[in-house]
Write a structure and sequence with these properties.
The protein is 24% helix and 31% strand. It is α/β, with parallel strands linked by helices and 186 residues long.
Length: 186
């Protein structure tokens, strides 16, 4: 079992690990949209938005909170009310699905994902619906149904901060979706 560094929660550790996995796939020509990037003071430090923003051509972070790090393009807005335009090579939405309408989020991401691009979603086991904690298998099924708006998706589990096969999900779920053929609606 991996030890989460002292002073860091499991979700913070998972998010850092996921950012490193996504960063590895980023190219200097990529245009990135991150939905729910946080306020710049939270759980990702330099591993989150600032590190990705430095590596890619263009990075836009959107969050309801006011961002406190002026080193990249940030929009303070609710993604469901913001008039998103443009296409993005990668769209990131880590641990935000439970805070928005998932159907709207997935549709929006699919419509604004460039052909051949990738969208990254995750959710942890701190998700509560109707007073009950949602299980890893329920989150996987939820993502499986929601990902129908994409041409392709892969669902993975998260166990002790590491990406594992879906059946081994213990502490969260990580999804990579894509529109290989593009989306004719835009």
């Amino acid at each position: 079992m991996i030890q989460v560094p002292e002073g860091m929660t499991n979700q913070e550790y998972h998010r850092n690990y996921l950012y490193l996995s996504i960063l590895d796939e980023c190219k200097s020509t990529d245009e990135i949209l991150e939905i729910g990037c946080g306020d710049g003071t939270g759980d990702c430090g330099i591993l989150g938005p600032p590190m990705i923003a430095k590596k890619v051509y263009d990075y836009v972070g959107i969050d309801r909170k006011r961002y406190n790090n002026p080193s990249f393009n940030f929009v303070q807005a609710d993604i469901e009310e913001y008039g998103l335009t443009g296409m993005y090579d990668k769209i990131i939405a880590l641990y935000v699905v439970q805070y928005v309408s998932p159907e709207n989020l997935f549709k929006l991401a699919s419509e604004h994902l460039s052909p051949g691009g990738k969208a990254y979603f995750s959710e942890g086991l701190n998700w509560v619906q109707g007073g009950e904690r949602v299980t890893a298998s329920e989150i996987c099924e939820f993502f499986r149904q929601g990902m129908a708006v994409f041409d392709h998706c892969e669902i993975f589990g998260i166990e002790d901060g590491i990406i594992v096969p879906e059946a081994q999900a213990k502490t969260g779920v990580f999804v990579i979706a894509s529109n290989q053929e593009g989306n004719d609606e835009n």
